[in-house]
C-alpha cells in the first residue's frame, strides 16, 4: 500500500536525525555493496498480512511492513533499527506525519522486534523489524 509506505518514510525522515537515518529509505530492496565498497542502505517493504474486519460502514485494513537496515558498522545498524522501532511503535497515540488524509491510522505497533538477519559478502550487517498497522479509509 503506497500510502502507508510513503507516510512511514515521511514520518521517519521528519522525526529521526540524519545520523540515525544514515541513508535514504528505498522501497522494497536494499542497495547492494561490493567486497571493496560496502553500501549503507535502509529499505521498507510490504509483507503479507491477514484481511481486516468488515463492517457496514467500511472496513479495518490490516497491513504489515518490514524495515531493513544495512551498514558495515554493526552498532550503527543496530541503533538505527532500534530507533526506528521505538519511533514507530504506538505512533498512532502521537502525531503521525502522513502524506495526506486518505486514511486514518488506528494502530501501528512493532510486530517483530529488531533482529540480526545476516552478514553479507561485503561485510555488511543487515537487521530487520516487522510492523503491524490497522487503518481505515476516510470518507
UniProtKB/TrEMBL annotation:
Protein name, UniProt field: Minor capsid protein
Domain of life assignment: Bacteria
